[in-house]
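Input record (Table S2, row 514):
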Amino acid sequence: MSFLDRVRDFFQRKKTVEIGGGEQAIEKQKKMGKLTARERIQYLLDPGTFHEYDMFVEHKAEDFGMDKKFLPGDGVITGTGNILGHPVCIYAQDFTVAGGSLGLAHAKKITKMMDHSMRMGMPLIGINDSGGARIQEGVNSLAGYGEIFFRNTRASGVIPQISVILGPCAGGAVYSPALTDFVFVVDKISKMFITGPEVIKTVLGEEISMEELGGARVQAEISGNAHFYAESEQECFEQIKRLVTFIPWNNRKKADKFQPKPPIFDKPIAEILPKEPNEPYDIRDVIKALVDNSDFLEVQEHWAKNIVIGFARINGETVGIVGNQPMVLAGVLDVDSSDKAARFIRFCDAFNIPLLTLVDLPGYLPGVDQEHAGVIRHGAKVLYAYSEATVLKMTVILRKAYGGGYIAMCSRHLGADFVFAWPSAEIAVMGPEGAANIIFKNEIANAPNPEEMRKQKVAEYIEKFANPYKAAANGYIDAVITPEETRDFLIHALWVSQNKEDVPPKKKHGVPPF
Ligand code: HXC
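Output record (hexanoyl-coenzyme A complex):
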């Protein structure tokens, strides 16, 4: 073959792979409202930056007619590229090729990328759109999944791992996303479940659609498996790009510093808290009034809404924010909100992101349901995560900080570096009503007007304990500050903590209450 013939042959081979499962399969993909794997990579990465590897990999399976089946790229596209100038490793399963099913060669392409991202210290992005283990390849497919899960776990805390569910992600395949840091889902497109509707019908005799079982809304609102929910694939890619700007490439780096910008929130920060201490308000307003450009990327926005977590910048530097949400269940800690906060705290700690905790909660949610669901075990995760974290920990107590809630929300006692409290802070063992009812029980019962006496005792308790000054007197908080001073105190805390060193005791690893 002449040189030119070889070049022509190369282009022909390349085209064959690039067309994936062919026109018909692509049309079917489009009819489902989905982009193709190649389009997804194009939309997500900076133009012209994608470099593809292993496009000529072929499977070696022989059973069930596989010896005669050519599967372009073995159903997955892998490579490296940039997202807004940040280097990333990426793979995208191609549903048009054997339903994106995962055989051994397909898995090896993915694990090669995972090894590469670990070695080179860059985020890994996996786009999942697959019928699961390639049935014809039997145990080799399972081996492939096992190799992926092993690497997901080894990479945890070393490089950020992002999973994008853009089609089915069924059976054991769901455990790769579950082991990664952030899971993105898209309405009507993402479907994630361990056992599908067919199995449920056979085993339990119940009819349920894939959407109701494990659609995007279910994963974002009910199960909490997903961290970001989008209405379209394009919106999902914009969310991923935004996230990548807030996090570092790996655990040896810090997130990029941006040009500092003042908040642009229209309500003055001192006017956000309602006049009455039991009235709700949106903690996100406080966040927006504190952070650069009022730009807050909320994580798990639709699940366990009684706690708010997410990324923002203060003076150009990324911070991870955890705030009780008084608008939902008065901002209590419960099973789900504890899980949500604890995992986020551990992500921030692993990736050198300072933590800012905004406190306003009456404590843990009481009730038989919560006790039986293991609120002790789940709640302990928050204590563990904060105590274990060695990044800069800044806490601002806005209003209520009662009982176990006070301790759990990054108190001085769990190693907070800076604890500030607004004059409106109420720091005590429990709320004034409950406390007065218990400690003045007899006085109230024996008074000529018990209700009047109760009110008087509640007021007495508030006067004495429901303020920040007892805690300040003991040095448990460092400063009582006004809402308007808060941003300045935080900027200063970030500045003076640049060289923070906190070396934890030597051990293989702890045993958190998973
Ligand atoms: C081989 C598969 C496949 C699979 C789909 N295909 N899933 N091939 N192994 N797991 C092929 C189909 O044969 C078909 O090939 C093409 O992909 C498109 O599939 P359709 O069924 O036509 O598409 P659709 O109607 O959209 O349905 C998608 C689907 C369905 C819901 C995902 O294909 C399905 O239920 N697949 C099986 C899912 C499953 O049970 N997987 C195994 C789970 S167990 P042709 O040639 O006709 O185009 C598992 C264990 C992992 O994953 C354990 C790890 C620990």
